[in-house]
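Fig. S4 source data, part A: sequence.
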Amino acid sequence: DLLSVEFMRMYLESKGYASYTANSVDSACKLVDEHQPEVVVTDLQLSDGTGIQVADHAREKCDAMVIGVTGYDRHSLESRGFCLQALSTVLLKPLDLKLLDEALDSVRPL
């Protein structure tokens, strides 16, 4: 939802990350191509596909760390056919910011 996306954008910017938002696989992949990010945070359910597609693209184009965010537990995702190997980390909703910080610190330690 838009409120969650805006919160995430503001939170990442407060941590010193440039932040760009997309609402589809296509627009997310275009942003990856344009900005070559070190970290991609993506919901696993997008309007035109999955965050796994974004993760595969980000890894191929810029070897980004990809954090997947979802309301489903790992078992539910795997039973729905999600291959989670493309993701560096999976975080469950509601998002625990401490876990997000830990994942981000593994890319850019303070």
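Fig. S4 source data, part B ends here. The CA atoms of residues 58 and 64 lie 6 Å apart.
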